């Protein structure tokens, strides 16, 4: 049963992570950052979000396939600092920024439909960039 919870959590993390990566790339492009730097930021954010869960899933299935009774543990000091801590901090940033990004997108849609692309569009766009950058 707990596999279901882990699967739902990873699915939610994947959807949220893809959305935040796209919005972060858009914000960086609006600020005039070079395309190469944007690609690097997208790659690093993907690595921080999905490397640790993917490593654990491969380890679990590899141990099952090899018939081992235990799996290798990644709970040492070095593994925690290199894998666990960056993953947890990245997940916290993603999950805390998603509601604000969705609210900014909703406000942008409402203002754009009511007034068209006018002077308030610039203010709403600045409000979209602020949660991602700041």
Please summarize what this structure is:
The chain is an all-alpha fold. It has helices at 2-30, 35-66, 77-115, 119-133. The chain has one domain (2-133).
Task: Give the SSE layout.
Blueprint: H1 2-30, H2 35-66, H3 77-115, H4 119-133
- Helical residue percent band: over 70%
Largest sheet: none
Mean pLDDT: 84
Instruction: Tell me the distance between the termini.
Output: 39 Å
The total count of strands amounts to 0
Strand content: under 5%
Ranges where pLDDT stays below 50 over 5 or more residues in a row are: none
Q: Provide the gyration radius in Å.
A: 19 Å
Order of helices and strands: HHHH
Q: What structural class is derived from the secondary structure elements?
A: mainly alpha
**Which term fits the overall shape?**
elongated
Output the number of helix runs. 4
Q: Can you tell me the number of structural domains?
A: 1
Write a structural description.
- The protein is mainly α.
- It has one domain.
- Helix content is 86%, strand content 0%.
- It is built from four helices and no strands.
- It has helices spanning 2-30, 35-66, 77-115, 119-133.
- It is elongated, with a radius of gyration of 19 Å.
- The N and C termini lie far apart (39 Å).
- The mean pLDDT is 84.
Structural descriptors:
single chain; 86% helix; 0% strand
